[in-house]
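Dear colleagues,

As part of the handover before I leave the project, I'm documenting each prediction I ran so the next person doesn't have to rerun anything. This entry is a single chain, and its sequence is reproduced below.
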Amino acid sequence: MASALMSLLLQTLVLLIGMAEARNTPAKESLQDPDLVTSLPGQPPVKFRHYAGYIGVGDRQEKALFYWFFEAEHSPDEKPLVLWLNGGPGCSSVAYGAAQELGPFLVRSNSPNITLNPFAWNKAANLLFLEAPVGVGFSYTNRSTDLRKLGDRVTAEDSYSFLLSWFRRFPRFQSHDFYIAGESYAGHYVPQLAERIYEGNRAAKLIPLINLKGFMVGNAVLNDATDQMGMVEYAWSHAIISDELHAIIRNQCGSFQEDGDPPAGPECSPALRAFLQAYSDIDIYSIYTPVCLSSLGRRNSRLVAAPLLFSRHGLWRRMAAGYDPCTEEYVEAYFNREDVQKALHANVTQLSYPYSSCSEVIEKWNDSPATVLPILRRLMNAGLRIWVYSGDTDGRVPVTSTRYSINEMHLKAKQDERKGRKREWGGWRAWYHKEQVAGWVVEYEEGLSLVTVRGAGHQVPIFAADRSLALFSHFLHGRTLPADRFARA
């Protein structure tokens, strides 16, 4: 016990010294940082700095996780730090979040140039993108056996170890308010990492090792049974499947419980294959937008490959988490360029496989709890700010799934009883951006907010860039979303 306490005190002292040194270090010295990116091919000129490289994790640092960090566009020393995670599991936060959704540089074509994002989230915060676990993107391990030991627990532990080491490399951000955000299977990653940080801070006692304030997740996998039920209900309510197929799935495939469920009926498997086939010619992640014709066959083979839609280790976990009207192909081509990798200090070990948006080398996913709702409740009780948002044209983790899952928590909705306000049934109301309805929101007394984004697919920042930035900014400041058409943002 004494040795453990001494180790903790030393760790805290190192962090405090690092913070003090950072405050007394001239800003110009950061130009000497070996992770500073100075010549990214095709990059437009910007005034903020960005860094990329590896952080070793594990007892002997045999694992190396790749990150890309963007300082805030203005006043980075005064803005919070946000870690963004994509899901999969096995999909890259650099390839999706940074390069397609909310980063300042977007890959939009096969041209040599990248596009400056006018609604990048680093307008509101310092942005950190992490490729985790090992085997994802540029992140790697020196032991091939690690690729067979991956799962939710390892991902959370390695990501936590990464953060502690990252703050030692960037100590001037140690005291900043810290938030985590993500989408899809990051509905597991984000709360699990938040819980690990919370536990680490409790153990430290003297000073929080990471100044965690809250998290937000979009179109998030939260609770298997209700997530899967919501997926079927969404397809039926949006005229993608017939009344007959809907009835067969509901009657033959049980109540969507994974454990202790009565055996599925004989018509369940063919019904689920028919369900998948119904999505074969449209984008399940964005049901009203065109598909990329050049990659249609590849995407559909992934859609139809698994025999059971709701197998915990089948399609539900393996499908790539992202919208792809050809953008994904451009992103993979860009990050496979040798000059890009050199500029980002990436692929320093010359990996034996090409860069891909979703990993092709992860061999097994060992643990994936059926629900993360108890973690949400625990962290709400701890006072963290938690927002769950949903683009309402996503068929993969649809808004019906999110609503069913949140309803499982039996939270109490706040009621706005100010004079002149419209009556809100169940606390449900519209929120506005630029005098238009941007979506709907309900705030709960326990500290959670559920927000929809109207007309957006699985990757909300792609479809609703300005609204997603407004949503993000309100979350960071703890401000209620505008309730009137002419309300000030």
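Residues 2-23 form the longest helix (22 residues). The two ends are 51 Å apart (CA to CA).

All the best with the project,
I.
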